[in-house]
Amino acid sequence: MSDLRDDQWFTEVFDSHGSAFSLKISEKLLDVQSPYQHLEVYATETYGNLMVLDGCVMLTDRDNFLYHEMIAHPALFTHQDPKRVVIIGGGDCGTLKEVLRHPGVEQVTQIDIDEEVTKASERFFPVVGRIE
Hints:
The protein is an alpha+beta fold. The chain has helices at residues 64-78, 94-99, 115-124, 126-129, and strands at 9-14, 19-33, 38-44, 49-53, 56-60, 84-88, 107-111. The protein folds into 2 domains: 9-60, Spermidine synthase, tetramerisation domain (Spermidine Synthase, Chain: A, domain 2); 64-129, no CATH class.
């Protein structure tokens, strides 16, 4: 699916902050317009695979754990005895993986509007959602 030049970069610009984040990409792996959003996956030179939704970075192989751990663990560690958890969004399944590390959790319900995100994650980010 790659249609990129050798010097291609993905850049997300934050106009209101006067900054940007860029990663050098080697290949476009997926480009899908779902009923809800534009989903792209790229292979990068230093961060592994990169998922982009509507032009915004969602996750990379290299640093996704930071996001998922910080969403799941602070809430679960501050709750006295979490048994049932609801995850709104989280189609990449990384937060689900972290929630399931808590042995007292008996039930998890994950709700995401876009099945394409979960499909792309299973295909291009298998470690993110792999329950160990």
